[in-house]
Amino acid sequence: MAELYEGIMNLEKCLSFISSVYGSDCISDNDVLLISGTQETSSFSDNDFSGIYIHEENFLSLDKGDVNIKNLHNVIIKSNLSYKAILLYKYISVFKTEYLVRSFLGAIVGRKGSPCIIIEDSRNVSFINRFRRLCRVLDLESICIPVERDNISMYVVNARRKNIGFGAVINETRDDILKNSCGVTNTKLYSPNDFMELLSTQVHCENPFSFIRFNHCEPRISGFPYLFSIEDAIETTELQWGQKDVSIHDIAKISSQLLNCVRNADMMGIPDIQHNAGDKLSILSNSCYVLFRDFRLFSESTKITNVNIHIKLGMMADFYELLKVPKKLVLVSGRDVSRKLQDKLNRSNIKQITIPQEFRHRETENTIPHFPHLFRHISEEIRKKAGKGTMFLVGAGILGKIYCDIARNNGSIALDIGSLFDAWDGKATRGRGFPDGISLK
User: Fold this and answer.
1) Is the peptide bond preceding residue 225 cis, with omega within 30 degrees of 0?
2) Distance from chain centroid for Cα 343
3) pTM for this predicted structure
4) Which bin fits 61, alpha (ψ -120 to 50), beta or left (φ > 0)?
5) Alpha carbon of 435 to those of 298, 422, 423, 441: distances in Å?
6) In angstroms, rounded to a whole number, what is the distance separating the alpha carbons of residues 196 and 435?
7) What is the rounded distance in angstroms from the CA atom of residue 365 to the CA atom of residue 355?
8) Alpha carbons 263 and 258: distance in angstroms, whole number
9) Within 10 Å of residue 300's Cβ, how many Cβ atoms?
10) What is the DSSP pairing of strand 116-121 with strand 152-158?
11) What pLDDT, in 10s, does the model give residues 8-51?
């Protein structure tokens, strides 16, 4: 109980700090929404607090566990609660999964734009590590406020960063982040026609070239452990390969390879920035930019396009005409559409390297997991088939980025076209499906 009093006694100083640093309107104690993760605050009345006024409808207290966080999330986001700052008292530490805390903090700090004051037990080392990672993945500024008690940690968290030299992803435009934080000289977003013009030059000149796409699954692996936990990484391996037992060593190895693939890529497909980042996919999209910036993955000459351009390419006649040009065309996918594509292109020399289908959309049981055993075998097959004048079309999830990099390093052109293989095969594996007319007959 004394810990709570200690935090409340420092609240006035904390609110003054928020106003001065972030240029906020003056915040008084009755502008604060208190959310508690412990029942020790439930017996307090308004008069018990020397620095905060708690409106009855603004007081929420939960038992330990993850069950009620979605309800709380909805209450805060959809309600008309009037507050300018939020005080989380021993709240973050009660939840078992980082995913839920990410969504909650992303919503209240990102979407609502409210500064957040966090009071936790400084002896809780696991919380401190989790909290630092949460701030990194959400790209939030975290400032520690000194308090007199040794066992109390007090932080102010905000997306309105003033003292770091660049803005938080959620508040920036794509061009500003790429130019000012990632060092990309030409921030032009290549349209499908621009992409085709560039690709045509590479194909006719037989230049090594790699196009890869980075979106929701990639950061959970490449961002381990900087942005995401091992549980997040395993969620991706389970979705893609059906495996929960991938070792930390293997995750770290794939992470390193993925980061190098981005550095080597000639063209990157990236997601749009989400300015209302309170849901899972929006947070994952924005985390890509944190990785691009913090790991210096782009160079001055990196070329950028939209992550979903592969579907647009599948609708373009010029794309199919260009696929007729390479001396060899190799497909790397769990969907064997080689015959259909041969008929479409009227060419016979199309080779297929068949991989296990993505686990969540599989139609047959994968007797041998994609990783690690088949991964090594497929990588070697690509090296054998690669060379000047060969093009690889790759749809292999996160490992597909590595396959593209291997092909490029061995003189080939490689395009990460992902779910276009599903569309060609008439399988509606994404969202509401694919555009009419894209499947190969």
Assistant:
1) yes
2) 38
3) 0.87
4) beta
5) 32, 12, 8, 14
6) 20
7) 12
8) 9
9) 9
10) antiparallel
11) 445 556 666 666 655 555 666 566 777 776 655 544 444 333 33
User: What would the pLDDT profile of 356-415 be if each residue is shown by its tens digit?
Assistant: 877 776 767 666 788 988 999 999 999 999 999 999 999 999 999 999 999 999 999 999
Q: Left if phi > 0, otherwise alpha if psi is -120 to 50, otherwise beta: which for 399? A: alpha
338 half-sphere exposure, CB direction, 13 A CA radius:
17
In this prediction, residue 405 carries a pLDDT of 98
What's phi and psi for 406, nearest 5 deg? -65, -45
Which single residue is written with the structure tokens 């994952």?
A: 284
- The lowest-confidence range among 10-24, 126-140, 157-171, 259-273 is 10-24
Tell me the two tokens of residue 220: 């959970």
Q: Print the SS3 string covering the chain.
A: CHHHHHHHHCHHHHHHHHHHHHCCCCCCHHHEEEEECCHHHCCCCHHHCCCCCCCHHHCEECCCCCCCHHHHHHHHHHCCCCCCEEEEECCHHHCCCHHHHHHHHHHHHHHCCCCEEEEEECCCHHHHHHHHHHHHHCCCEEEECCCCCCCEEEEEEECCCCCCCCCCHHHCCHHHHHHHHCCCCCCCEECHHHHHHHHHHHHHHCCCEEEEECCCCHHHHHCCCCCCCHHHHHHHHHHHHCCCCCCHHHHHHHHHHHHHHHHHCCEEEECCCCCCCCCHHHHHHHHHHHHHHHCCCCCCCCEEEECCHHHHHCCCHHHHHHCCCCCEEEEEECCCCHHHHHHHHCCCCEEEEECCCCHHHCCCCCCCCHHHHHHHHHHHHHHHHCCCCEEEEEECHHHHHHHHHHHHHCCCEEEECCCHHHHHCCCCCCCCCCCCCCCCC
- Distance in angstroms (rounded) separating the CA atoms of residues 29 and 52: 5
